[in-house]
C-alpha cells in the first residue's frame, strides 16, 4: 500500500514524518535515505500493533544499526510493546510524540 510521508532536511539529516507506516517504517526510511543517507529522526505511527516482539526488535535494530537514525518519536499505533522495545533501544534518543509535544530539530 502506498503511503504519503514527509522528509524535512536538517543539518543533522532528515526528519521524517510518516503516516501509519503500513508498508513498514523501515522501508519508508530506507526510501528516504535516497534523498539523504543521513537520518535524524522519524515521527508518526509505526503501526506495529500486530507484530510480535522479535519482529519489533528486528525493526528497531534496522532503524538503529542499519539506517543509523539518531532519534525516534513513534506515535500511538506503534503499540505499547513497540514503545517499550524502542525506548529500551533508543533510551535518551527516544522522544515522546503526542498531542502538544514539540520535537526539536537541529
Ligand atoms: Fe496504524
Task: Quickly list its features.
binds fe (ii) ion; alpha/beta; 106 residues
Structure characterization notes:
The protein has 106 residues and is α/β, with parallel strands linked by helices. The protein is built from three helices and four strands, in the order ββαβαβα. It has helices at residues 25-32, 53-66, 80-90; strands spanning 6-10, 13-17, 39-44, 73-74. It has a four-stranded mixed β-sheet, with no helix packed on it. Helix 2 links the parallel strand 3 and strand 4 (73-74). The chain is globular. The relative contact order is 0.19. The structure holds fe (ii) ion (FE2). Residues 20, 45, 47, 77 line the site of fe (ii) ion.
Topology diagram in text:
Elements: E1 6-10, E2 13-17, H1 25-32, E3 39-44, H2 53-66, E4 73-74, H3 80-90
Parallel strand pairs: 2-3, 3-4
Antiparallel strand pairs: 1-2
Helix pairs in contact: 2-3
The protein binds fe (ii) ion.
Quick structural gist:
The chain is an alpha/beta fold.
Bound molecules: fe (ii) ion
Unreliable segments of 5+ consecutive residues? none
Helix coverage percent:
25-40%
Order of helices and strands: EEHEHEH
| Molecular shape | globular
